[in-house]
Amino acid sequence: MVWIHGGAFMRGSGAIPTYDGSRFARDGVVCVTINYRLGADGFLYLGDGIANRGLLDQIAALEWVQENIDAFGGDPARVTIFGESAGAFSVATLLSMPRATGLFRRAIAQSGAAQHTSSVATAQLVGRNLADQLGVAPTMVSLAAVPLERLVGAQAELAVELAVRPDPARWGEVAANGMLFEPVVDGEVVPGRPLERIVVGAGADVDLMVGTTTEEWRFFLVPTGAIDRVTEERLSTTARVMGLDVEHALSVYRASRPLATPGDLLGALITDWFFRIPAIRLAEAREKNRGSTHVYEFAWRSPLFDGRFGAVHALEIGFVFDNLGRDGAMTLAGIDPPQALADVMHRAWVSFASSGTPGWSPYDSRTRTLMRFDGAGGTVMIDPAAKERQLWDGVR
Questions:
Q1: 298 and 210 in contact (C-beta within 8 Å)?
Q2: Which residue among 5, 102, 114, 285 has the highest number of C-beta atoms inside a 10 angstrom radius?
Q3: Which residue of the set 5, 84, 85, 118 is catalytic?
């Protein structure tokens, strides 16, 4: 199993305590955690030079695994890539890339799917904005000469600007996605939009598992208190910008959340737009070519912030790695998270990597079967939140 870390393609490392692979090794899996170039080093593209260097780093790591993993007791014919957030976006993009063909047999995308990429035009907009921020010419040579500390600082400043003022005229597609850097559809390394390529059969021979947490976006709303500053006007504007019928959509979301505040509803909307619906679309795209796909949802709620944190983004990772008790790991889960849930989830990931069958039925658009992981362990669900899912048909 090869782990690709998240961090919005700008931060992160394969070496943090939560990603320690000892429990996988205990259970007969050789676990490899990798690093790859981030930010401008990994994903800046101005139309010249090489695009998607961060993805090429991931491919280089997978080629190394093919050539060397048998020396560590691993089977190069049974490689599973798995990742969370930007790592999951990477997994879905690799699934669609010709250069990655044959480098892995199975793939797991945790809180990320195949709808977050940039066009060349958007990548060039971001590159020019970065160059302007640094006061240099918008060329790869000029940007490469900028001291690293200054480059990283400018990236961070632009990321804040993007979050505060997501103007499509200035930022192109990333105004909606909210990530300064993403894989670029350059026509060569990434030859087409990943979801479109998967629809026509790319990666159909790879077993896939994809899923999300129930309340992803509360990770970004609760700790700062932003969830309490959301107004009805902002909620309605967000729903409208997403392309939803505002009155009908909000009535549907409220029906299953009668005590929800505007902030609660905003979190639910963005969770679905950014994570849950793209995961469903990826599963549906795979069905067209009979690719084996399993879907899950992580619903256990963290007790942090007086119980308001919820089943947030990245919370499932420590359960997957079975690292709840490791020093420095799983601070998101609070005190005494349920080990029984980690036992169930870790076992499902090991089973999927070993055999392609995590323990529940594959997903199809007729039954829409998924596994919900919660305090009870795991419960098979049929099309949960169906009315909310249906709101996004033809929209997302």
A1: no
A2: 114
A3: 85
